[in-house]
Amino acid sequence: xxxxxxxxxxxxxxxxxxxxxxxxxxxxxxxxxxxxxxxxxxxxxxxxxxxxxxxxxxxxxxxxxxxxxxxxxxxxxxxxxxxxxxxxxxxxxxxxxxxxxxxxxxxxxxxxxxxxxxxxxxxxxxxxxxxxxxxxxxxxxxxxxxxxxxxxxxxxxxxxxxxxxxxxxxxxxxxxxxxxxxxxxxxxxxxxxxxxxxxxxxxxxxxxxxx
Length: 211
Hints:
With 211 residues, this protein is an all-alpha fold. It has a single domain (4-207), classed as Heme oxygenase-like (Heme Oxygenase, Chain A, Up-down Bundle). The chain has eleven helices and no strands. The protein has helices at 4-11, 16-30, 33-40, 47-60, 70-80, 87-90, 95-109, 113-125, 128-141, 151-174, 178-207. It starts with a helix and ends with a helix.
């Protein structure tokens, strides 16, 4: 959550090429995130909890309009960085990006429900607001991006805190034993480990070193 890459991105002088490298690689995670939730939804043991979970889906999909979906808002940022429509489709993902996505598909599709819940809840919805607090200054201090251009990031600082409340309710409802707590924590820690590798890869790609 406080990876050296984020601190460097927030404080160092960045070129437009560095911003584009970050934005294109990070978009690969953004466009797939809803798949993790789709994998997890059928595993939720009770209908009331599943209905609660669908509130998060509504936000991800832009409250039923594709123009406000989270990937669409992110593409607004890519366009503001001067990237054409085909740029985000043909970018070659870093190995750490591919590993991150494959791992989270497995955590939410094949692993125990509580492991998947830990990966998507504590490791995503709880952690993202902190990480994005670093990203916005890095983008805006080194470009002409407006508040509207970085709405994807600023929205998540607010929205994911609300989503965290939803996930807390799911956790309270379904994590009743020490064994359950252990599986939830395992999912969260495995997810955060892959997140660290993702930031490691981006640090190398953006700054040319992991120092």
